[in-house]
Amino acid sequence: MENKNEPLRYGSPISLALSIKVAEAAATEADAHGWPMVIAVVDSGGHLVVLHRMDQAQHGSVLVAQQKAQTAVDFRRPTSVFEGALAEGGMHLRLLGMTNLMPLEGGLPLVVSGKVVGAIGVSGMQSTQDALVATAGVAVLTAAS
């Protein structure tokens, strides 16, 4: 029986083909809103598999999208968890001392069969909009299951 308190386990790295589908679904969502964004997909080891920069996406979003994806896979949770913790203040502010996380919404783990196979990171608009686009990418995994 699976313990709900245990963190998700890492699985085999996401394939290039599936990474492209995830990025394309996210780009389609961003395009539907007219949002120029950068979408990064990393595998379960944190290695970049796909980087999709839409026309007119701000240059700074290239690195931010990658950092959001890296944070989501490294910590096996959405980056919104860290954004929320910082908003609470207090002892959570020590997160600002960590150099290996991006505490902005828009990074989500990619989970297949209960295991983290990678992550998606999206940047270019407000973090809530980034998260909406990332969620569209994650939905590909649900449809494929």
Task: Walk me through the structure.
With 145 residues, the protein is α+β, with helices and mostly antiparallel strands. The chain has a single domain, classed as Haem-degrading domain (Beta-Lactamase, 2-Layer Sandwich), CATH 3.30.450. 41% of the residues lie in helices and 20% in strands. Strands 1, 2, 3, 4 and 5 form a five-stranded mixed sheet that branches. Helix 1 crosses helix 4. The chain is globular and about 40 Å long. The two termini are 21 Å apart. The mean pLDDT is 94.
Based on the model shown, name its key terms.
Beta-Lactamase, 145 residues, alpha+beta, 4 helices, 5 strands, single chain
User: What share of the residues does DSSP label as strand, in percent?
Assistant: 15-25%
How far the N terminus sits from the C terminus, by CA atoms, comes to 21 Å
Identify the CATH class. Answer: Alpha Beta
Number of strands: 5
Q: What is the name of the CATH topology?
A: Beta-Lactamase
Largest sheet: 5 strands, mixed
Q: Could you say what the CATH architecture is?
A: 2-Layer Sandwich
Unreliably modeled segments: none
Oligomer: single chain
Radius of gyration: 14 Å
- Which structural class should the secondary elements be placed in? alpha+beta
Taken from the alpha-carbon principal axes, the silhouette is globular
Query: Fraction of residues in helices?
Result: 40-55%
- Please report the number of helical segments: 4
Question: What is the H/E order?
Answer: EHEEHHEEH
